[in-house]
Amino acid sequence: xxxxxxxxxxxxxxxxxxxxxxxxxxxxxxxxxxxxxxxxxxxxxxxxxxxxxxxxxxxxxxxxxxxxxxxxxxxxxxxxxxxxxxxxxxxxxxxxxxxxxxxxxxxxxxxxxxxxxxxxxxxxxxxxxxxxxxxxxxxx
Length: 140
Fold this sequence. Notes:
With 140 residues, the protein is mostly beta strands.
């Protein structure tokens, strides 16, 4: 948690995460980077895939890494194959891309994305079919 005393209070996802493929045994060790000064590494992720948990524990040994995954969790994530501890740059593959950027007036709408803002929208054709107790009719 940041800015407890001054500024806007926010929570930052920082630290290491581990994802294991139960079928193959492969393990992905993810490192969620801290924002740093002036937001240089905001929302940044760097991850490596290993054959198994034993190899993942030996993070210092670059030759055990199968894939590198990098990007931001608010933009896109890409992967590259690795050979002998080095990234093979011509193997770049887009894994995931954010479907929509932050909407206009993002800060004024409680930092909600478009999907969250549309949850309370009621089309006229549906309005007459809903019970008066539907939570979307609440003024708050």
